[in-house]
Amino acid sequence: MMNVLEKRTRESLRYDFGCWDLLVDGETIVGTPTMAASEPAGLTFGTPVVNTGPITYPSGFVAQPGQVVQVQISGGVIAVGQVSQRYVVRCVFNTSISPNQAEATAYLLVKDQP
Predict the structure, then answer these.
(1) Residue 7 sits in which domain range?
(2) Dist CA 51 CA 37 (whole Å)
(3) What CATH number has the domain bearing residue 17?
(4) Pairing state of beta strands 29-37 and 84-95?
(5) Is residue 2 over pLDDT 90?
(6) I want to staple 77 with a disulfide (CB 3.0 to 4.6 A). Which of 9, 26, 37, 42 is the partner?
(7) What is the enclosing helix (H) or strand (E) of 29?
């Protein structure tokens, strides 16, 4: 199941791409991941970073170092006459088990009305 993220066009928010389900035991994310989004253009990505320490989520789950990509996302365009725009956001990364490469994918719903 793909994660669904949400933001308004004027917001600039940090999102976590949890990749623990894409990695085998002991495998971690290495290097700098790349971010891309589906059309329409208009999203802006900050520099993605990989967590260097554990992250505890509200559910109590703890992501270990090297399992999460954090990135700032801003912008987004909503077509005239529409109330929202759905983007597919892709985070591609290399892993510590060379030459493995994986992709974390999420929907980003951009909307300006409640």
Answers:
(1) 3-111
(2) 22
(3) 2.60.40
(4) antiparallel
(5) no
(6) 42
(7) strand 29-37
Fill in the DSSP letter of residue 38: P
Q: Distance (Å, rounded) from C-alpha 75 to C-alpha 51?
A: 24
Sorted by sequence, the CB contacts under 8 Å of residue 59 that are 6+ apart come out as: none
Strand arrangement of the beta sheet that strand 29-37 belongs to: 3-7, 101-111, 84-95, 29-37
Instruction: Tally Cβ neighbours within 10 Å of residue 47.
Output: 10
Token reading at 62? 């703890």
Whether residue 12 contacts residue 77, with contact meaning beta carbons closer than 8 Å, is answered with no
Taking residues 17-21, report their average pLDDT: 96
114 residue type, one letter: P
How many domains does the chain divide into? Answer: 1
